[in-house]
Design goal:
Blueprint: H1 7-19, H2 22-29, H3 33-47, E1 52-55, E2 58-61, H4 63-88, E3 95-101, H5 103-120, E4 124-130, E5 144-147, E6 156-164, E7 166-171, H6 172-178, E8 192-194, H7 200-207, E9 217-220, H8 224-232, E10 238-241, H9 242-245, E11 251-254, E12 263-270, H10 277-293
Parallel strand pairs: 3-4, 3-5, 8-9
Antiparallel strand pairs: 1-2, 5-12, 6-12, 7-10, 7-11
Helix pairs in contact: 1-2, 1-3, 1-4, 2-3, 5-10
């Protein structure tokens, strides 16, 4: 076994292990599929073991791969800690900051905020990751996250900076056609916009004492932007954040006194990386501006 091998081989191994395919690993690492394949082959050669069985359904890790995974992840953690330390040593308020947020926040709430930040921090470039998945800050997939769930990793710092107020909304044209609900039970007589696989809205109806099945919803999607556009198109009554509804004057609240749970907004950053002036500057700007946008 040649004990000197570079970190990129281990990085490709872990990505393939987590994604289950060369293609998935290539997407995560922003590399080509042949490159990932070469990395894994080189690592197998240097270690003198077989790490994956190639099957028609992707990569099947061998027992040796699973045995080596913990050591590889420890190496990954060390590499990322080194990167965070280097980033933290940067003394200027310039460079790139990678922000991740849920799809509606990234597409609707943040752009005006980032436009103001561009004026305040003109030397900072932003990479915005629009994803409803909880991005792993520990793996440097992002520097700062805006999430509705508080992270539980001890090395992350999370600050609650506000809450998304949810409400029932519909387009004026829809209400002219179908009438305006006057009480919660009236919603059952309307075209409803709901989830496809998720059951949050169904659970909300059940909590109000109106159990409904998914067939009750005339339009179903788990894509939150598609849900918003469906409301705007007059497909029915949908449940969206107030900050989204304010962007279209033709979308109006339905049952404004209906009590719906608020979604907390957590601004999260890695504890060590807060020593970076550029990330600290972006973090502080978002902490001040996002609550106002909400």
């Amino acid at each position: 076994m040649n004990q000197t091998f570079d970190w990129s081989l281990v990085q490709s191994f872990l990505a393939a292990l987590d994604q289950g395919s060369l293609l998935g690993a290539a997407r995560v690492l922003h590399a080509s599929q042949p490159t990932i394949g070469r990395h894994i082959a080189e690592l197998e050669s240097q270690l003198g073991v077989v790490l994956f069985e190639r099957t028609g359904r992707g990569l099947q890790p061998t027992a040796m791969a699973l045995q080596l995974a913990d050591s590889a992840r420890a190496m990954e953690a060390g590499a990322h800690q080194l990167a965070r330390s280097v980033s933290g040593a940067d003394g200027g308020v310039s460079g790139t900051v990678r922000i991740t947020a849920s799809q509606p926040v990234a597409c609707v709430l943040l752009p005006p905020v980032l436009a103001r930040m561009r004026q305040a921090l003109p030397e900072v470039q932003v990479e915005l990751v629009s994803s409803n998945e909880v991005t792993n800050l520990l793996r440097r997939e992002a520097d700062i996250a805006l999430r509705m769930v508080r992270p539980d990793q001890a090395s992350l710092v999370a600050k609650r900076i506000g809450a998304v107020k949810l409400g029932a909304y519909a387009h004026r044209d829809y209400l002219r056609r179908k009438g305006t609900p006057r009480q919660p039970s009236d919603l059952l007589q309307h075209e409803l916009i709901g989830n496809d696989r998720h059951e949050d809205i169904q659970q909300g109806f059940a909590a109000m004492g109106y159990p409904v099945d998914r067939q009750r919803f005339a339009f179903r999607t788990d894509d939150l932007i598609a849900c918003w556009e469906a409301v705007r198109a007059g497909l029915g009554v949908g449940f969206v954040g107030a900050y989204m509804a304010r962007t279209d004057p033709n979308v109006v609240p339905v049952l404004p006194t209906l009590a719906l749970p608020e979604l907390p907004v957590w601004l999260t950053v890695h504890r060590e990386i807060r020593t970076s002036r550029k990330i600290r500057a972006v973090y502080d700007f978002l902490a001040q501006e996002v609550p106002q946008a909400l």
